[in-house]
Amino acid sequence: MNKPFLKIIDGKRYNTATATEVAQWCNNYPTSDFKFCWEILYRTSKGTWFLVGQGGAQSKYSRSYGNHGSCGGRDLIVLSETEAKAWLEAHEQNEALESYFADQLEDA
Predict the structure, then answer these.
(1) Residue 58: what are its φ and ψ, rounded to 5°?
(2) Would you place residue 65 in the very low, low, confident or very high pLDDT band (cuts 50, 70, 90)?
(3) CA nearest 55: which of 39, 66, 44?
């Protein structure tokens, strides 16, 4: 996913070339596997969060192909701040959590 990705949603431009990459996650399946999934979380200069991901035919990024088939795909998903924080927690991205959500964390 090293090519810049641009998507316009509701008149807003989401561009990986101008946003800050916050964290990456991969499920460690080979890229040839139908279950392969790779996601990168970004934050725009205005503070908007979005996820760019790609995956195989059995991943959440799959696309319909023909009448009964599917193939791998790539997409951009806009996230709320709460969803971005949850994504970071779910993927154990502790350094990014400390950087972006330190004021929302507390010691146990």
Answers:
(1) -115, 20
(2) confident
(3) 39
Both tokens assigned to 6:
């641009």
Residues pairing with 6 in the sheet: 15
DSSP SS3 for 90? helix
Alpha carbon 3 to chain centroid, angstroms:
14
Residues 6+ apart with CB under 8 A from 8: 14
63: Cα separation from own chain's centroid: 17
Q: For helices 94-101 and 81-90, what crossing angle results, to 10°?
A: 150
Spell out the domain ranges in the chain.
Answer: 6-100
Q: Place 16 in a pLDDT band, splitting at 50, 70 and 90.
A: very high
